[in-house]
Amino acid sequence: MGAQVSAQVERRKSISTEKKSLVDLKQTVGSDFPGCDYRPSDRKNWMSGLNPDNIRINQIVWPGTHDSATNKIGIPLVTRPFAQCQSLSIYDQLKTGARVLDIRVQEDRRICHGILLSYSVDVVINDVKRFLEETSSEIIILEIRTEFGHDDPPDFDKYLEDQLGEYLIHHDDQVFNRTISELLPKRVICVWKPRKTPQPKAGGPLWGPGHLKDNWIDTDLPSTKFESNIKHLGEQQPVANRKHFYRVENTVTPQADNPVLCVKPVTDRIHPYARMFIAQCFARGVADRLQIFSSDFIDEDFVDACVALTKARVEGKA
């Protein structure tokens, strides 16, 4: 018992030290980066506002959401706080400015996060289509994967093609060098990541797992995650040279050996430092690698930071 108490004391000290490390870094270096003062007047149509004729796909800093469809996961006030990573619906996330969705499914096409369940994936698809019908030039990256420990939903690739066919941007390495206008009216890059069934074929309507990569680490230590994100980002090629998307997640994850197991208070340890992360990308010479930047509980300021850097890139300022 004494050893367990001692271990918990050390864990709490580590968390406190790492939280202070980010606070001190922000006070020392700030959060400014090229174009950071820009705020889109219409987040629902922010790509349209930057002129789709001028924005190449590989210039976009894509604001994304982590575990996107968890706003109604589990039982309210009972299990939900342990798995909920977003409070907004998929439609409201898109309206706020998110353009990358991270969707986890199980065998029956229901959304899940570990053992906890939510609504059918049909809710996600309907929200996506509603948003696309209300906008004209917004491109979405829709990543759908089978959750760890589950089997793939039967014929799920056919389901996605049937539901999104008119919007799907077929896999093509040249997509990265094209402007938004050159891809329209197609609007969705759908990355399907099955666990056991065959992966999408090159050139088809769905993109395979190798076209959206990341280096996720399982930690609740905010400075550890922040520095890991910088390190792994620096190992990537610049966006201009890549033929896949690379994601950085401004999140940390509750750990079973820590008494704080709810997602919100844990991820809040790193959530306020998204702008500082972008600033540090410039300071450390890796800003040309940043592409997809995702968050738990996405908010307008997070979106604004990604849009501001996108605008600066399009204008040749970053």
Task: Describe the protein.
- The chain is of the alpha/beta class.
- It has a single domain (12-314), classed as TIM Barrel.
- The protein is 34% helix and 14% strand.
- It is built from 10 helices and 9 strands.
- The strands form 2 sheets. The protein has a 7-stranded parallel sheet with strand order 6-5-2-1-9-8-7. It has a two-stranded antiparallel sheet with strand order 3-4.
- The longest helix is centred in the first third of the chain and has 28 residues, at 2-29.
- It is globular, with a radius of gyration of 19 Å.
- The termini are far apart.
- The model has no long low-confidence stretch (mean pLDDT 96).
- Residues 51-192 form the Phosphatidylinositol-specific phospholipase C X domain.
- Pfam families: PI-PLC-X (PF00388).
- GO terms for molecular function: phosphoric diester hydrolase activity.
- This is Phosphatidylinositol-specific phospholipase C X domain-containing protein.
- One of its GO terms (biological process) is lipid metabolic process.
